[in-house]
Amino acid sequence: MSKLNIKNLIKSFPSMDRPAVNNVNLDIESGELVAFLGPSGCGKTTILKMITGLFQPDSGDIILDEQSLLNIPTEKRGVVMVFQNYLLFPYMNVNENVGFALKMKGVDKNIIDQKVKEMLELVKLPDIGLRKPKQLSGGQQQRVALARALISNPRILLLDEPLSNLDAHLRDEMRDLIVTIQQKLKVTTIFVTHDQEEAVLLADKIALIFDGELQNFTSPKKYYEKPKNIKAAKFFGGVNFINAKKYNDNLSTNIGTVHYKGENYTDLNEDNIITIRPENIKLSKNNDFNDNSFKGLIKSVIFSGTHTRYKIIVNDLELECSLQSVGLQDIKKDDTIYVHLPSDKIWAMNE
Amino acid sequence: MNNNLKKINIYAIYLGAIILILPLIAFFINAFSFRWFYPQVIPKELSLQAWVRLKLIPKPGQRTFEGFIELWASNPAVIKALLNSLSIGFLVTIVSIIIALPAARVLGLLNFRFKKLIIFIMVSPTILPPIAFVLGLNINFISWGFSGNYFGVCLVHLVPIMPYVVLTMTGIFANYNPDFEHQARTLGANKTRTFLLITLPAIAPGMVVAALFAFLVSWSQYLLTFLIGAGKVMTLPLLVFSTASSGNPALTAAISIIFIFPAILILFFTSKFVSGESGATSGFGKI
Amino acid sequence: MKIKLKFLTLTFISLFFSKLVFAETAPGFNSWDDVVKAADGGQVNVYMWGGSDAINGFVDDFYGVPLKEKYNITLNRVPLKGTVDAVNQVLSEKEAGVTGDNGNIDLIWINGENFWTLKQANLLYGPFAAGLPNSEFVAWDNPAVNLDFGRPVEGMESPWSSAQFHFMYDSARNNYDDMPRSYAELSNWIAENPGRFTYIRPGKGGFVGTRFVKQIFFELSGGHAQWVGPFNQELYDKWAPEVWKLLNSWEKDLWRGGETYPKDNAEMHSLFANGEVDLDFTQSPRGAGPTNTAGTTPPTSRAFAFYENMIGDFNYWAIPYNAPNKAAALVYANLVLEPELQAAQVQPANGFCCGWGISTAKVTDAAGKAAIAEAQNNLGDAAEDQDILAKALVSDIAAEYQDLIEADWEANVLLK
Amino acid sequence: MGGERLKIILSLTPPLLIIFTLFFGGIFYGFLQSLGYQPAIGKYEINFSAYYNVMFSERYAKLFWTGLGLNLWVSFASTFLAAVFALFGALAIRKTFFAKTICNFIYSLNLPMPHLVVAVGIIFVFSQSGLLARFASQIGLIGSPGDFPVLVKDKYGLGIILAYIWKEAAFFFIILMSVLQSLGENFEELAQSLGANRWQRFRYVILPLVMPNLFSASIIVFAFSFGAYEVPALLGVIYPQMLPVMAFEFFLNPDLNARSEGMALSIIIAIIVMILVVFYFWLTQAKIRKD
Fold first, then answer.
1. CA nearest C98 in B: which residue?
2. Are residues C256 and C395 in the same domain?
3. Minimal Cα distance from A15: which residue of D?
4. D206-235, pLDDT tens digit by residue?
């Protein structure tokens, strides 16, 4: 239940020609579940390690509940990290692993036993206390690592790539567990991931980081609908980008004039880019739409279960559209088609 | 593999094993015989005279409990040498590990300029012969007052030991994940407890191997102890060497048994680490 | 004038010497009581050739115990491969500037060349020998005692025991009557028994071998007398080629065809005991007694000597200039001259291989006399006839010969 | 970075300090003395006469060059044979059979055995009156000890080589066992499935895999056997004499001038080892690159 402020954080390594973390500012509210998202090597784990105190920042500050953490040794920060490969201490059994943090605090053994039992129930592994880490599956190890991290009621929980080492079917289960536990305990949580889908599914807010720089820090929904720039849009699966110019409160493109309702019109530069998510594009064989409708040619049709994806050429521009497979019109390759870009779904952004 | 071949193979192993322990058998027979000369295969006279001579077993007639106690309390040369060898061995082992630990960690975990050169320098005492440095060192040690005392002998033993300890432990740290320590730190363990509870158990198997090498190198050191100890620090190798050239095989064999027994005992208790998967011995593949 | 000067110098020297002897028991000590007091509770580092476990055992048993009980001194016997190791240690300490009482060595069992090296370099403490109470039993007027390899002892070392070179054979294999009695006879014996004889390499640790070769010089040159006195290069050069010729003529009939030689007496004993060769060397007036007792030679081993030219000598204890426990060293040097302990050291049963260091005639007290008489009766049947030994006895010669013989033997026999 | 560099320097300093002051310091001082620089006995000039004396003077040349020959022969032969012995032992033992643990232990037994003791053991077993000779005499093969082949204290250093094989085979064995165990049998099974016979599996699969470790272990063994004193001192003959023994005897000579020769000889030994090891590195690296 703690609030974390990161101020102008900078960290360089001699082996890198640019700062690993470059002037990052972040304010994380109490109880939030935040994802640090970015490609590997973008500096997100470095930030985590600075929060834990394993790295010292070159400059900037990390403030937890109005108090700077920088001069507090790692073990006294109340910040617990769960590493990507779990790092269960191999020569301790599960009970000893989970109880480790309380033992460090000198808590009475009976209380530790009690707490360990509770934690193992919380992560739904009540009967494995005497096993050694080697005897556990990957998913079980992850849960034990989580229980071990949570036992001392950390002020901040840090998860480094919590799902990346798990099989697909375990991921969903684990994701649900993390969300459930996080909501139950209301612990401020930061997790690091390179997978935008994971970030979207789990996080209240996502901090998108490229090359050590924070790109944006906002809710997942906004990343989809109103990305800040083309890089962010692309990272979240954006495929349709149309160059545009401001023109009479609307936008002019080489497929024609596009009506735009976005609230950021005034912030837009003269030259900007329109994006729209493939699932928001509508298709019609007959020109049923009165607004933002353009004629094109179907280039390919790919059926992928619940959805079908179309590639359409409009005036040399390729757009991608994804429609629910159920109740589809019969659209085939080389058909002529009308493409509708709903004006409330398009989003323009600066380069 | 067909069956005949397998049998031959096994017999070859047995033959090898017998050849290997033949000297040991000779030691035992010699140590308990008297006037065991060619061509006797089995000694005609069995005797404890070598042990009586070494003052480890009392003379006939005094072989009571008190007799043993009294004899051993008289501090016979062999026991003095044994205690010296053991204590020097343990001391230099511990010191060398303490000295080598931070260096091995840095060499195993980090990459930096001149690392190869530094490893080469550390290893050089295994390559260049001890006689090349100890003859020159001798005069310096005498003028520094390190000659003829325990401290000087311990100090000079560190030289041949250091490469083995550094190499073995570098091997351990090359396969070591320092994030375990980070994990413990974030879970609230301070630096000391992290070292004791996390680092130490993780490197312990390799450290046992390093300690084994260190102890054995010190244990069997003759030339360095002889020159630097100036005869005043009497260890078992010195005793074995002088006895071996004094021409009493029974006595030589008896001292040799005392000399090898602790070493074999230590190997026995550490063998699972030595041939195990700790990877410590394969540290030698890295030079 | 010349005579007068010489006389004055002599007077001066004798005055100086007598002052040392009478004013002080030994340098730094006014009386024997002072010495004993200063030694109390300390230790004494005795550096001695450790190649004979019989001697080692004797020192530990017969000196270690009374030192502790009577004087409260702990004996630390340091076995050496050769006495030269201790000499080297002192030289190294000198080189490193270690003075005062800061050395490592208190006593060295020494004689001949090694003594001369240290004495010449002023690296010895003393004179002390005459100041020892038991010095009264020492025959200081005998040149065999007051000269060591032809060099004056001058109180810088104190005697311990005596030794004489001769041979051993196994009475189970050979007859006493068939044994050679001169080098000429030995030559024939070797030819008749190919592969059954070898000798110790003259060299470090092999002084017995050097002695064996020295005696050839005496026999070939027609007698020992001309070799007494200072080193004579001409004489040596005259006879050396003859000696190498003789030794080389043996070579093909030696053990292993003369391809190698035992390094020391221990190795020789082992060859003899295992029947690889038929003759062995001994330095003990008690012949094969000591090694028979130790079990390093067969119990049937006996001694024999040539009728002439068997070198005998005394050996001594010397104290380095920087000995850390000089008082304890003096006590030790005195202790070994006790008549009872001297009587112990000659008896084969006690394992020590050497002879008297004192003149038994000088012992007057009853206990000492009794001990000596008993020892004389216990010589055992492994010793050669004492008369034969006494008749063959010759003294060792100038130390320079030792080095020369060792180097030349290597060049002319071994590496030839 | 400052912190990290400092940490590296602080961590490496203590062992390097020991190596530099004691080891290289000793070599340097020995080198000075070998040049005749001995202030203690008033010698300040510097020259290479000790080196010349040891290598070319009439007195020592023959000893030196025969000694060098013996050194090379003994070191190469014992390194090679110990490696071969250990390799076959390890390959045979690694397959499971019922006495594996015991044999494993026996094969490693010589590892903690001090060289001195091994040398003594070799005398006991292989000398002309040793255990084997006695067996031979018992079954009527030989009469007197002289009939038994000279295996110890012989001109060709056979006893020394035997001792080193005895001792170092265990060292090789343990290193090989740990490599072989970590490799498992997958590679071999794969090779077998690709049609490799026993010999081919050994030559093309196992040998290349264990080679790097075998190489570095053999450097240690070679260098050790080239410069060690105890074993040749106990098992060698007086001529030819291995160089370390010769060097030590120089040093023990009471004539202080001979010390220069002793130092010079030990520096020569060190230089020869250095050259051989560098050559060996170059050879093996070239070979590894070619493979």
1. B143
2. yes
3. D1
4. 888 888 888 888 888 999 999 999 999 999
Higher pLDDT pick, A142 / A14:
A142
User: What is the predicted pLDDT for the residue at D2?
Assistant: 53
Mutation choice for C interface testing from D63, D234, D250, D252 by most C CBs within 10 A: D252
- Residues C380 and C396 both lie in one domain: no
| Subunits adjacent to chain B (3 or more Cβ pairs under 8 Å) | A, C, D
Range of the domain at C408: 164-282+290-311+388-414
B to A contact (≥3 Cβ pairs closer than 8 Å): yes
Residue C156 lies in a domain: yes
D146 in contact with chain C, both atoms CB, cutoff 8 A: yes
User: Residue C304 has what pLDDT?
Assistant: 96
DSSP class of residue C259 equals S
Q: Is residue A95 a contact partner of residue A116, using CB atoms and an 8 Å limit? A: yes
Same domain flag for C249 and C392:
yes
Domain D58-290 class in CATH: mainly alpha
- Give the distance, in angstroms, between the CA of residue C158 and the centroid of all CA atoms in the same chain: 12
- Write down the pTM of the prediction: 0.80
Q: Compute the distance between CA of residue A97 and CA of residue A89 in angstroms, rounded to an integer.
A: 6
C369 and C359 part of one domain: yes
Asked if the C-beta of B140 comes within 8 angstroms of chain D's C-beta atoms, the answer is yes
Q: Taking 50 as the threshold, does the pLDDT of residue B49 lie above it?
A: yes
Domain boundaries, given as residue ranges, for chain D: 58-290
Residue C354 sits in a domain whose CATH number is 3.40.190.10
ipTM of the complex: 0.76
Buried b (16+ CB within 10 A) or exposed e, A199-224: bbbbbebbbbbbebbbbbbeebebbb
CB of D151 within 8 Å of any CB in chain C? no
Residues C408 and C268 in one domain: yes
Query: Is residue C266 in a domain?
Result: yes
Chain A nearest-CA distance from B192, in A, is: 11
**Which residues on B lie below 8 Å from D134 (Cβ)?**
38-41
Give the pLDDT of residue C188: 96
Q: Does C269 touch chain B (CB under 8 A)?
A: yes
C352, C232: one domain: no
Residues C199 and C89 reside in one and the same domain: no
Tokens 């050879």 locate to D283
Say if B41 is an interface residue toward chain C (CB within 8 Å): no
On whether any CB of chain D is under 8 Å from the CB of B106, the answer is yes
Domains in chain A (CATH in brackets) are 4-225 (3.40.50.300), 239-349 (2.40.50.100)
D144-169: pLDDT as tens digits: 888 899 999 888 999 999 999 988 98
- With vertex at residue B216, the alpha carbon angle to CA B210 and CA B221, rounded to the nearest 5 degrees, is 130
Positions in chain C short of pLDDT 70: 1-24, 353
Tens-digit pLDDT profile for residues A206-252: 999 988 888 889 888 888 888 888 888 888 888 888 888 888 888 88
From D111, D125, D270, residue closest to B26, measured CB to CB: D125
Touching subunits for chain C (3+ Cβ pairs under 8 A): B, D
Residues C259, C401: one domain? yes
Q: Using only C-alpha atoms, what is the Rg of chain D?
A: 23
Chain D CB contacts of A13 under 8 Å are 1
Q: C256 with D150: CB under 8 angstroms?
A: yes
DSSP H/E element including A149: helix A138-150
Does the structure show a pLDDT above 50 at B284? no
Query: What is the tally of structural domains in chain C?
Result: 2
Q: How far is CA B109 from the centre of its chain?
A: 28
Domains in chain B, ordered, with CATH? 3-71 (no CATH), 77-286 (1.10.3720.10)
Place of tokens 């000596």: C372
Average pLDDT over residues A135-150: 91
Q: Is the pLDDT of residue D116 over 80?
A: yes
CB pairs below 8 Å between A and D: how many?
4
Q: Which of C91, C113, C268, C400 to mutate to test the interface with D (most CBs of D within 10 A)?
A: C91
* B237 in Cβ contact with B84 (< 8 Å): no
Nearest CA in chain D to B257: D117
CA distance C19 to C41: 30
Distance CA D117, CA D128 (A): 19
